Amino acid sequence: MAKHLDLEEQEQLDEIKHFWKQYGNLITWALIVILGAFAAWNGYQYWQRSQAAQASVMFDEIERAVQSGETARIDRVLADIKERFGSTAYAQQAGLLAAKAHYDKGNVDAASAALAWVAEKASDPGYQAVAKLRLAGILFEKKAYDEALKQVSGTFPKDFAGLVADRRGDILMAQGKKDEAKAEYEKAYKALDERVEYRRMVEVKLNALGVDPVAGQLKLATAENAGANK
Questions:
Q1: CB count, 10 Å around CB of 201?
Q2: Which of 181, 120, 129 lies closest to 157 in space, CA to CA?
Q3: How far is CA 36 from CA 33, 39, 50, 58, in A?
Q4: Where are the alpha helices (DSSP H) in the chain?
């Protein structure tokens, strides 16, 4: 036999019914949104893994095409991976790889197009920086100095600061702007780690402009030490 609710329990039940009547739909929809977002996140993670796996297969294919020197196949696979998996790191790597293959074959226009795509579309700042530096190099060789300078302007990851400054110095030197070039080479020398062999190349460029960066750094270090000892 069911027990009858006492007055206090009946009042509590009525309050719950009233609360649910007033806020039940809102709570239900909120739960749907939360659970839907959770499901969407899991789905997105799965989608990303699926995209990466498929893009990986296509990247392997473009690697084989590069090794065999099949430029038509390179272009076909690159176009496919750009269209289907353009946001993945594999697509950006494929663009850089295809650009090198085309450049080695003497197809500068195709190399430039691949690099321009990576420079514009890459989500990874590192791949973007590499593409811009390489594209600036091609434009430099074509004596398109203003266009080359645009590629090495703007923001770059800190690790690329030395290489970018060095490339700007080369372009400015070619334009006859020696003082500006010297300033860029000095930036490059300071930014590059002393263990990096390329730093020696920048030092040679500065020496040719009458600058001894080693002596300059020694003087700076001596001045700093003197100031610290006061």
A1: 14
A2: 129
A3: 5, 5, 20, 32
A4: 7-68, 71-85, 89-104, 108-121, 125-141, 145-151, 161-174, 178-191, 198-208, 213-229
Coil, strand or helix at 112 = helix
Residue type, 143: K
C-alpha span between 123 and 114 (Å, rounded): 15
Q: Which of 103, 98, 179, 173 has its CA nearest to residue 143? A: 173
Q: In a 3-state reduction of DSSP, which class is residue 77? A: helix
All residues at 6 or more sequence positions from 157 whose CB lies less than 8 Å from its CB, including other chains? 125, 126, 129
- pTM of structure: 0.72
For 34-92, how does the pLDDT look when each residue is reduced to its tens digit (9 = 90+)?
444 444 434 434 445 666 778 888 888 888 998 998 999 999 999 998 998 888 888 88
Q: Identify whether the C-beta of residue 129 lies closer than 8 Å to the C-beta of residue 152.
A: no
